[in-house]
Here is the input.
Amino acid sequence: MSNLENTILVDLARKLFRGCTNFHIEPDSVKLMTWSWQELFVDLTLRSPVIKKYPISTELSRIFLKKLINCIEPVQEVHDNLYAELCRAMNNSAIEDYCYRHYVISNDLNNIITMKETKNMVVNGTTGMRTWEAALMLSDWILCNKELFSSKDVLELGSGIGFTGITLAKFCEPKSVTMTDCHEDVLQVLCENVDINFPSQCKNRSSDGTTYELDNTSFVPRRHPRYDNNHGC
Ligand SMILES: C[S@@+](CC[C@H](N)C(=O)[O-])C[C@H]1O[C@@H](n2cnc3c(N)ncnc32)[C@H](O)[C@@H]1O
Here is the structure.
């Protein structure tokens, strides 16, 4: 696969991973979406281990696939696997309270932060059940200024379900990260997101349930990924 074909694949995969259906594909790019490109795209996204384990919203994948197929159909033969995934998404009409979104931190789809979240901005009287665009922007800035957080005790106020604090804990080598929120349901999902992204690490939740602390002295990754600040749709 050429560099350009790979770039198009990764760019589109990042959007699908995070449930972004607002994309545009240049006609020249569609010409590169050959049969084998499409097969690889499905294998690396909808049939990847991470999405099998933590599925993205079927509604969002349905919208995404319809749009992608509409782009490809006039130019290329559409791969059976794309149709199969669309049918699967269309057959699954269960109402989803939660879905998973996967935020790709590097250019190669290997560094991913998985978040359990809702599709709606306000749920049960809280705005904290979704990752806000502000959290993505702040994380971009944090990842560009990692040295400010190295070996520091970091406190996040109103962390919601945790994207910013988890990103910082994973990539900035802080001494500790404390994420706080006032909403019980938000804290519950925050704990689940910490478990997803730090499956075997040491974690402590305060007795009053309003603070969730990561003792990350033992889990800070030693290798740093290359960071690409293309979080936008
Ligand atoms: C707009 S959400 C943003 C969540 C997250 N920071 C993000 O950007 O995705 C605001 C969060 O702050 C929390 N919050 C609001 N007032 C708070 C307070 N006084 N103490 C703790 N958390 C608070 C809410 O429960 C909610 O989860």
